[in-house]
Specification:
The chain has about 300 residues and is an alpha/beta fold. The strands form two sheets. The protein has a five-stranded parallel beta sheet, sandwiched between helices. It has a four-stranded parallel beta sheet with strand order 7-8-6-9, with helices on both faces. The protein is globular and about 60 Å long.
């Protein structure tokens, strides 16, 4: 029995995520009140082969803060994964404006007055702060619905593990990912962009990889990050972390960070010393570059 809790900030894509899971054979429950979660889980058969997805958000107010304790109590009986969707305030404001939806916390429950969209978003962030820490976070600010579905299905189809590590590349010019726990800056490494024959390529291409491997700085940064993760990952796991995102950024997220993330992901995915680890990789801004190049 696998249970996926889908939660996060309103407007960040929970409905898209729930539909993606439903299309892949999950039994889905949307907007479940917190006080009914325990009752629902108690009705489930621990030996069943069902896959359950439950969407929970802050529409119920402060009771959402009870979610981590309820999940921890249920973990002794079921395999439970929590996925927290997030997005920048700018992206959320744009989405609510385009859909003309009202934020679920826009109405003040105390005096029944309305508050601004930004204030409602910040109130929700405050309510949800304790939940995101131990969940697998996905920043949907700059991605399409199709990309979110792809990332989500990649996550749920991976093998069971004690801890999931997501290695993510990005471009600083598009902002640091909201879901990053640890960030490394690769902009000091020689940039293939300034080589005419490499400019249109990416860190997935062998010519770019060969160029970077000739750089002492590239190899040194890889070794330093590798050593850092090997040492600190068990510490995070001991502290109760089930998910951690390690992000590497360069200027555009096209060459250097992509190559580094590929190399780090491969190193940990095939490392027998970390057999309890689920290693995923994501290139946040690579599709953006490819879309521009193909125009």
């Amino acid at each position: 029995m696998s249970i996926f809790i889908i939660t996060g900030i309103s407007g960040s894509g929970k409905s898209v995520a729930l539909r993606a899971l439903e299309d892949n054979g999950f039994e889905c429950v949307d907007n479940l009140p917190i006080n009914l979660l325990t009752a629902l889980i108690d009705q489930l058969d621990p030996d069943g082969n069902h896959k359950i997805a439950i969407a929970i958000d802050a529409r119920r107010g402060a009771s959402i803060q009870d979610l981590p304790d309820l999940i921890n109590r249920a973990k002794g009986k079921f395999e439970i994964h929590t996925i927290f969707l997030n997005a920048s305030t700018e992206a959320l404001v744009k989405r609510f404006s385009e859909t003309r939806r009202r934020h679920p916390l826009s109405l003040n429950q105390l005096d029944h007055s309305f508050q601004s969209l930004v204030d409602a978003i910040e109130q929700e962030r405050s309510l949800m702060a304790g939940i995101s820490e131990h969940a697998h976070q996905i920043d949907t600010s700059n991605i399409s619905s199709n990309t979110l579905r792809t990332w989500l299905l990649e996550l749920i189809h991976e093998k069971n593990s004690d801890i999931t590590v997501l290695f993510e590349s990005f471009g600083f010019k598009n902002g640091v990912p909201n879901d990053a726990d640890i960030v490394f800056d690769a902009r000091c490494i020689p940039n293939p962009y300034y080589e005419d024959e490499l400019r249109h390529l990416t860190g997935n291409d062998q010519a770019v990889i060969d160029f970077l491997l000739l750089s002492e700085d590239f190899n040194k940064m890889y070794e330093d990050i590798n050593t850092f993760v090997k040492y600190w990952l068990p510490k995070y796991q001991k502290d109760g972390r089930s998910y951690i995102t390690i992000a590497v950024g360069c200027t555009g997220g096209q060459h250097r960070s992509v190559a580094l993330i590929n190399k780090l992901h491969d190193a940990f995915k095939n490392n027998p010393d970390f057999s309890n680890l689920q290693s995923l990789k994501r290139h946040r801004d690579l599709k953006r570059h490819l879309d521009v190049a193909n125009k």
